[in-house]
Amino acid sequence: MEKPVVAQKAPFAVTLNAAEYYWCACGRSRTQPMCDGSHQGTGLTPVKFTLAEPKLVYLCGCKQTKTPPYCDGTHKSL
Ligand code: FES
Ligand code: FES
């Protein structure tokens, strides 16, 4: 399995509608912070999450968080 690459050393602050999403865990997606299928062949897979209502969320951009898909501050030590 390959390691995730850092998409950016900061979270993505995005306001999302109530829906199902696939957060990019590999860092290779061109449509950050969501998966675009670029993880193929890396052994990594996206993280599915669901929002029950529209919400501002901070999705991890560095891909090193221990609480995916959300930023846990790990990017500060990179
Ligand atoms: Fe990164 Fe799919 S493109 S997990
Ligand atoms: Fe990855 Fe904050 S952006 S932990």
Explain this structure.
The protein is mainly beta and 78 residues long. The protein is 0% helix and 23% strand. It has no helices and four strands. The chain has strands spanning 12-16, 20-23, 47-50, 55-59. Strands 1-4 form a two-stranded antiparallel ribbon. A two-stranded antiparallel ribbon has the order 2-3. The chain is globular and about 35 Å long. The model has no long low-confidence stretch (mean pLDDT 98). One FE2/S2 (inorganic) cluster is lined by residues 24-26, 28-29, 35-39, 44, 46.
How would you concisely characterize the structure shown here?
The protein is mainly β. It has no helices and 4 strands.
Task: Name the descriptors.
78 residues, mainly beta, two-stranded antiparallel sheet, globular, binds FE2/S2 (inorganic) cluster
